[in-house]
């Protein structure tokens, strides 16, 4: 039961982080419709109820897992490219192209997350106290 709750908290935190990265004004601006508020409220409640130490470790774990998945997709695409270039039987050009696009999309998403995190860090460091 505790593991399931931690998983749900991890998922809620990942969703909230993704929402904030994709829409930086979400924390300060009031939602324009009730449907947006109803989507955000359960996530915010789950994050608010999560223990702080677990939340930080969970976010770092989720981020590390995402980077590992991007790396694995890139490695898979490279292996498929090599198989096609070597002319191995059973090597599919279509499968290779799809794997390359998946790796590219994953890398672009990871790059955007990194850029948003760097921007958030810069904004925090430039705040007046």
Provide the descriptors you would attach to this structure in a database record.
elongated; 0% strand; disordered N terminus; 4 helices; 129 residues; single chain
Largest beta-sheet characterization: none
Helix content: over 70%
- Our Rg estimate from Cα atoms comes to 19 Å
Tell me the series of helices and strands, N- to C-terminal: HHHH
Instruction: Characterize the overall form.
Output: elongated
Which residues sit in consecutive blocks of at least 5 with pLDDT less than 50? 1-6, 26-41
Q: What's the total count of β strands?
A: 0
User: What is the strand content?
Assistant: under 5%
Distance between the termini: 42 Å
Structure summarized in a few sentences:
The protein is mostly helical.
Q: What does this 3D model show about the protein?
A:
The chain is mainly α. It has two domains: 1-50, no CATH class; 52-129. The protein is 81% helix and 0% strand. The chain has helices spanning 2-22, 34-49, 52-86, 93-125. Helix 1 crosses helix 3 (52-86) and helix 3 runs antiparallel to helix 4 (93-125). The N and C termini lie far apart (42 Å). 7% of the residues are buried.
